[in-house]
């Protein structure tokens, strides 16, 4: 005679630390907003520069647009330069670093 055993598996047991689940939910909810902010805010700031110049905004607001939209402006300058046949900015930066003399740091021992 065989005895069968019945085993219950509880899959939706409450978590011991409810704050961890709340933190995960908040992170999941904010992730799209953060991504949009990281991508859209510099683009909008770069767009605000010509708009601000046309509408006569105060110089402080235009400066804020330049600072926040800096990465976009650098990429736009690089793209325009590529259209004109100039070398990419990464190549220019590499050439500047290779041609300039190395400055000894405090950790570098210099023989006198």
Descriptive overview:
This protein has 112 residues and is mainly alpha-helical. Helix content is 66%, strand content 0%. Helix 1 (18-55) packs across helix 2. The longest helix has 38 residues, at 18-55. The chain is elongated. It starts with 17 loop residues before the first helix and ends in a 13-residue tail after the last helix.
Question: Which terms would index this structure?
Answer:
elongated; 112 residues; mainly alpha; 4 helices
In short:
The chain is mainly α.
In round numbers, the mean pLDDT is 82
Question: How do the helices and strands follow one another from N- to C-terminus?
Answer: HHHH
Supply Rg: 28 Å
How would you classify the helix and strand content by structural class?
mainly alpha
How many strands, what sense, and barrel or not for the largest sheet? none
Shape: elongated
Per DSSP, the total helix count is: 4
Number of strands: 0
Intertermini distance:
96 Å
Uncertain regions: pLDDT < 50 for 5+ in a row? none
Helix fraction, binned, reads 55-70%
Sheet-strand content, in percent, reads under 5%
Strand-helix topology:
Elements: H1 18-55, H2 59-68, H3 70-84, H4 89-99
Helix pairs in contact: 1-2
């Amino acid at each position: 005679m065989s005895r069968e055993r019945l085993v219950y598996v509880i899959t939706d047991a409450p978590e011991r630390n409810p704050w961890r689940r709340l933190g995960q939910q908040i992170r999941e909810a904010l992730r799209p907003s953060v991504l949009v902010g990281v991508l859209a805010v510099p683009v909008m700031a770069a767009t605000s520069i010509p708009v601000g110049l046309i509408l006569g905004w105060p110089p402080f607001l235009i400066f804020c647009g330049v600072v926040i939209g800096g990465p976009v402006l650098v990429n736009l300058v690089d793209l325009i330069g590529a259209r004109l046949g100039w070398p990419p900015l990464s190549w220019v930066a590499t050439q500047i670093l290779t041609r300039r003399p190395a400055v000894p740091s405090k950790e570098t021992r210099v023989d006198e």
